[in-house]
Structure formats: structure tokens, C-alpha cells
Amino acid sequence: xxLLEIKPKSECRWDLVALGEVMLRLDPGDCRISTTRxxxxxxxxxxxxxxxxxxxxxxxxxxxxxxxxxxxxxxxxQDLLCQGGVDQSHVVWVPYxxxxxxxxxxxxxxxxxxxxxxxxxxxxxGNTAASQLKAGDIPWQVIFEAEGARWLHTGGIFAALSExxxxxxxxxxxxxxxxxxxxxxxxxxxxxLWNVAGGPERAxxxxxxxxxxxxxxxxxxxDYPVALGCAVAxxxxxxxxxxxxxxxxxxxxxxxxxxxxxxxxxxxxRATTAxxxxxxxxxxxxxxxxxxxxxxxxxxFDRVGGGDGFASGLFYGLLNGDDPQRAVExxxxxxxxxxTTPGDTSMATRGEVESQLRERGARIVR
Length: 366
What we know:
- By secondary structure, the chain is of the alpha/beta class.
- It has 12 helices and 14 strands.
- The chain has one domain: Ribokinase (UDP-N-acetylmuramoyl-L-alanine:D-glutamate ligase).
- A hairpin with an 8-residue loop joins strand 6 and strand 7.
- The C terminus is likely disordered.
């Protein structure tokens, strides 16, 4: 059952184009941000993480549209992107003024959390190169017409960076739609990005307008009510185990509110502790739904990037022509694996994802 009319690979250079900011993540390991004396560095960004996983795990051709300040931190990010294999031909390099008064690169300090101590993120991303992108800066006709793209992915984090980034997202999504490219939007609500930019009310305005330009929307169970104003999913007060069916009506409400959407997906998480979560996912089309088996008591090493792992696995299945049930199971399995390694990005292989679908468990592979 094909849910989406996706252009064939023979007509397109890119399987997926990601539009978003890529930050340098500083990870204190098993210490705290406020007390550590050393950090390990990774690259990460909601939209980019999807493109990287599709390239490294699933072998597809992807490119990222973003911007960096041209200084050693920007070049470190470039080096990290090279390892990820995502094409950088559409990265905008902005001259650096010497101290970051006019432009800089974003930093993201992230604790993984452990046991009763939850994960903690502290962003330092004001005045970044990506946040200053404006409509007209990116040659969308080159990307979608000359080169060709099967899928565009962007989301609520990029749209929240500034007034101009929401305009860039609008421009990109319209150009993609005009050229028959599938458009996905990850709600990815971050209250910290909206605190001084109009709060939840403004977030709903921006997200609502952008979701009207999408074919596919994804998010976690908390994103939908706050980002789109839909009803909170009704679950029992003594709710002790994930039930994807409890969220079905929420997704159907979104599909009804946005008739342009072909598919809505949600990741579901019940955090017993920072180290043990129940994890599941569901996607809905008009009148139909498909849920991945819930993984109860999943051991978590680093929860950041689980939702992006789901999105990339789901998109891979759809780009590959798989039926919706297999696609959502690919997404949930890949998201689960992405949370077993450090950093924002997936380190899983396609073979490991397939193994999870076959329920081979965690016995040693040798």
C-alpha cells in the first residue's frame, strides 16, 4: 500500500534534503555540565540527524541546507559532517567577525541523565549563522528543479530560531511542493526557543502555517497539543504502560484539521527513569493506523535523537516503497537503537535495524 506519491530516484539527485541548524554538542559524559572538566564533541540538529541517518545507516543520498560562521568551530562542524557523509554543497559559509558579535556557531550542552536524574540540555545558540538565514539566500530552484529531490525535511526547531527562518522554511516547502517533492515537518516543540519569541501562542501560529504546507508531520505525544493546539490524548489516570491506540484520535484530529496531510506520526515514551523507558510509535493516514510493538523497559544510554531516529527509519521505509506497517516498525526500531549510543546521531546499521524487526534480541553477534 503506497501512501505517498514519491518521485523515482532516477529523476533526483537527492533522496532527502534537510533544512535546519547543525550545532556542536558538548557532552560531559557521566558528569554534570556545571561540574565537568572535559567535554566530548558531536554534531547534531533535529533535521540534520534525519539526513545523516538516512545516509549512514540506510545508504541514501542526502544533503543539508544550513549555515556556519567560518571559523575553527565551523570547520570542526564541517569535519564532523564529513564523517556523517551528508553532502555539504548547500552549506552557507558566513564570514566571521573575530569575536562572534555579528555571527557565531551554535553550541548545545547536553547531559544524558541517569536513573532518577533526567537528561538536561542547555543551548547557547543566539545570533547563529543558521538563525540569520533569510528568504532568497538558498537557491531552491537548483535543489528541487536542476538537481531534484524526492523528500524535504524541516521542522519546528529551525522555524523557531528567528522570524526569518520561518520564512525560509515557508519558501523551501513551497518550492518543494511546486516540484513534486514530498515535504515532512517535525513539530519538535522547544519551549526555550519560544520563551522570548511569543511563547506557545506564537509557536502554534507558526507551526500551524507551516504544517499546512506539509505532506507528513511527526512529533512526540507532547508536541501535538502545544504546537498545533489539538486535544491531549486521553489516557487512564493510572496509566502504567504505553498504548498506541490511546493516541489514535489525536492523530486523526490532526489529519482532519490539516486535509493537506497524507500521514501523521507520533513517538511515544513513558520514562520510568532516565535510563529505562517504554518506547513506541504510531502513524495514521485518513481512516487507517499502524503501530509498532511497544518496547517496554527499554534501556537508554542517550535519549537525544530517538525521535529523529524514528523519523529517518519511517522515511526510509516510505522511500523504499515498504508498506506502512513495516515503515513504522523500521522507525521505532531505529529510534530505539539510536538511544543506545552517545551523541545526537544514529550509530546503528541497517542490519541491526533489520535484526530488531526479527526480534533477535541482544545476544552477542560474532
